[in-house]
Amino acid sequence: MDNNVFDELFKLNVNEHVEKKQTGSKALSYLSWSWAWAEVKKRYHNASYEIVKFENGLPYTFDPNTGYMVYTKVTINDITHEMWLPVMDSHNAAMLSEPYTVKTKYSSYTVDKCTMFDVNKTIMRCLVKNLAMFGLGLYIYSGEDLPEDDERVSSKSSSKPSSTPPSDEDKKKCEEIKSKLMDYEDVIPKDSWKDIEAAVKVATPESMKYLNQMLSWASEESKKAS
Predict the structure, then answer these.
(1) Proportion of the chain in helix, strand, coil states, percent, rounded to 5
(2) Which residue stretches of the chain have pLDDT < 50?
(3) Which CATH number does the domain housing residue 79 bear?
(4) What is the domain extent for residue 137?
(5) Are 10 and 88 in a shared domain?
(6) What is the DSSP letter of 134?
(7) How many Cβ atoms from other residues are within 10 Å of residue 41's Cβ?
């Protein structure tokens, strides 16, 4: 790949254009496809993308057992990368042509049947993932908060805290939410408590949002289980 393309796109901080969605006990990140494509086109006017269509003219493949899959191709400076993505619901469960039930350790939920809306949404998410192969927002898929060479982070300050210490009031609020979460230990997966503890420790507005989302989810799961 043209390293100049990758380096240029990889260094962009996309955080302000990322939407967080609570999926069960996990928060997933979604980058706006319109913003992502605009940023690429502003820098590389020859960039193009293709939504792969098949012999039947449809932009997806389907298997009764595994579900639907969509594909895209992106070309920048004569370099092409392909990407694929299954059509999934809000729990990241594969959608089929008919609804079905998924049973978990603590509850169960219904996966709705796939619609063209779900296919369209997945195609655009696939495009964003495709653009990540050229560097744009790739660090999101690695679970990082910032690109490696973000201009706001210098080697001289790397040993210092990157943000203002949480206020006593914020820490108190987070501790209160954690205390409420303790009432739902029976429905919250054990591996989620590490994330909860980390959120309480940093006590930022974003972490409080995560804790409240977790509390709302745990409350709903508890109701279903009772």
Answers:
(1) 45, 20, 35
(2) 151-163
(3) 3.30.390.80
(4) 3-141
(5) yes
(6) T
(7) 13
